[in-house]
Amino acid sequence: MPNDSTFTYGKYLDLETLLGAQNPLTDKHDEMLFIIQHQTSELWMKLAIHELSSARAAIRADSLPPAMKMLARVSRIFEQLNSAWDVLRTLTPDEYTAFRDAFGAGSGFQSWQYREIEFLLGNKAAKHLETHNDHAAYERLETALNTPSLYDETTALLAARGFKIDKTQLKRNVSENYAANDSVRAAWLSIYQDPKAHWDLFELAEKLVDFEDYFRRWRFNHVTTVERVIGFKRGSGGTSGVNYLKAMLDVVLFPELWDIRTEL
After folding, report:
1. Which of 35, 95, 112, 256 could form a disulfide with 30 if both were Cys (CB 3.0 to 4.6 A apart)?
2. What is the DSSP letter of 233?
3. What's the pLDDT at 241?
4. In CATH, what is the architecture of 27-263?
5. Domain ranges (residues) in the chain
């Protein structure tokens, strides 16, 4: 512990390092906005990973109250990230173009923290590891790819609580994308049809839906912001830009929790 009499707010937050990390490559006024927008997003994603990882561990241990609090916090994190797009949307196409070439092939697609969040949530594709081949985070991402996701642990909990979940589902290859399963769907339908009998699982399900709702909005706002600023140009990281982002809107993280609503 530091000496209380000499330790300061700035030292605790390491503000000299933090506030010295903005290094524009041009003299264009609006580049600072672009840098801070992405740096703060990475900080929020760091916290999201911290909370999602702990929530997954709590679900694995059948400790649902703390898991639900963590998931509620992550929803609020993505509310903040959604609001951040409103700031970036003040950047007009001509302002962005004025400094865009300075960072070459740099792209948000290369964010390893974003990729870890996707893996934590079950949206997995080994091909995305290639983007991070030469990065120190590669092993961390490889571990995340091969570790049961938040939702994998949730379905395992359903089985542990006595719901009949297919053995093939429980032993599935967790490095692959999650796909909807009839036995999981039946378990959630039973819970939603009698929530009082399964109250903590019902609450957990609603926290998962809350989070995915915010996550979908974040993806949507990403699409509209990019389209507003660069139109349909190719993305700087080699993706198809807006078209790639639009395809991500079709990804459903917890499919059974959405499917059952039609039958309730």
Report:
1. 95
2. P
3. 59
4. Up-down Bundle (1.20)
5. 27-263
